Amino acid sequence: METLKDKTICIIGLGYVGLPLACQVAAKGYNVYGFDVNKEIVDKTNAGICHMKDDELQIKLSQAKGKLTATTDASILKQCNIIIVCVPTPVYHNFSPNLEYIRSSAEAIAKHIKKGDLIVIESTIYPGTIEEIVLPILEKSGLNVGTDFHLAHCPERIDPGNKRWTIANLPRVVGGTTQEATDAAHAFYSSIIDASITKLSCVKVAEATKIVENTFRDINIAFVNELAKSFDHLNIDVVEVIKGAATKPFAFLPHFPGAGVGGHCISIDPYYLIERAKENGFTHNFLVLAREINNSMPHYTIQRTIVGLNQIHKSVKGTKITVLGVSYKPNVDDHRESPSFKVIEELKKLGANLQIYDPYLPKFSTVRTLQEALQAECLVLVTAHKEFLQIDLERAKSAGVKLIIDGRNCLDKNKIKSLGIVYKGIGRN
């Protein structure tokens, strides 16, 4: 009698979501194919080399040897029974959803789909995408959803660099185009994840769930970013205020301000809901405002830099400034939608004598070591890498640093000030 473990799995897309998922599925005893159009990623995966800087994932990839095979050949799909789509869903320059990777994945699946197959979309999409875009493409195969194959959504949940919450223990939700699809997806994810898998009433609810999760964070971050701007005028330490408010044991969830919001989720997903609602006659004024506030933070970081430079009688033009951090979050090499790029671009336009250093992204760094990076009059910290939290502040002063812009409010401001270095945080003076 055939069981789930007799099924062959294909993961479409071996990026920040797909590769960890492929390794997790392999670890649970399945035979897994990873399909990606990027030959370099495929070759590295087959060689057991993680194409991302992630030590934990590297170990898991090594352990998946013999169970995980990567390929650029889409015909492998006809050998698989469960196909999971983990491709990017970015936005265009006007912030409208870009679903070209979803469409191309669906078209590839439609060429090879068989009776009994389960198709799951993990990519973040707006409500209605599966029923209005994916399903019609798949049914061009001549097979019908519900009777011939199952189609469901299980929105990805992954936090690169988070060692507490991993793909193995994060609860998930599933919703299908039919109850049978929901049940099939639930059974599969229950077999690979050691956490609760919640069944939702329909696929559209599942699609909306992921958007709401990340939009919730975006709104709360916007709130504290606006507080930071206000408190800079009022000379109040916003971090101390937030920590004080967080002592209330209910009805408050601390979020913290910073130099900008990055990553493929928080900075992108709200637009999927904003644009989808607009198509259906509703305007999300609150969500739009939150995006505007968060998008303004790299520029505000530059404003804080200008204010700080004025205190030491300098202008941006000609001043040797080092930007610390390019990735969008600490201790990873993920630079998708990173606010660092906007900070760097603006400093260049203002004529700074600019240096860039990120120990996780040497390809974007203009200096090779932190010691070299400290050879500047001004440091602008954009990413709170552990290496930056351990900066020898006395050495920085000796290297000529006169101003530190703490874009993540993560440094010891009192020690910095005691050394005679000007400190400017985001909502901290």
CATH class of the largest domain: Alpha Beta
- Structural category is alpha/beta
Number of E strands: 13
End-to-end separation in angstroms reads 68 Å
Form type: elongated
Assembly state: single chain
Topology pattern, helix = H, strand = E:
EHEHHEEHEHEEHEHHHHHEHEHEHHEHE
Number of contiguous helices: 16
Mean pLDDT: 96
Main sheet attributes: strand count, strand direction, barrel closure: 8 strands, mixed
CATH architecture of the largest domain: 3-Layer(aba) Sandwich
CATH superfamily assignment of the largest domain? NAD(P)-binding Rossmann-like Domain
- Percent in strands: 5-15%
Commentary on this structure:
This protein has 429 residues and is of the alpha/beta class. It folds into two domains: 4-201, NAD(P)-binding Rossmann-like Domain (Rossmann fold, 3-Layer(aba) Sandwich), CATH 3.40.50.720; 202-429, Rossmann fold, CATH 3.40.50. The chain has helices spanning 18-27, 39-46, 55-63, 100-110, 129-138, 179-192, 203-234, 238-245, 269-279, 285-295, 297-311, 340-349, 370-373, 386-389, 393-398, 413-418; strands at residues 8-12, 31-35, 68-71, 82-85, 118-121, 150-153, 172-176, 197-199, 320-324, 353-357, 378-381, 403-406, 422-425. The strands form two sheets. The protein has an eight-stranded mixed beta sheet with strand order 3-2-1-4-5-6-7-8, with helices on both faces. A five-stranded parallel beta sheet has the order 10-9-11-12-13. The longest helix is centred in the middle third of the chain and has 32 residues, at 203-234. The protein is elongated, with a radius of gyration of 24 Å. The mean pLDDT is 96.
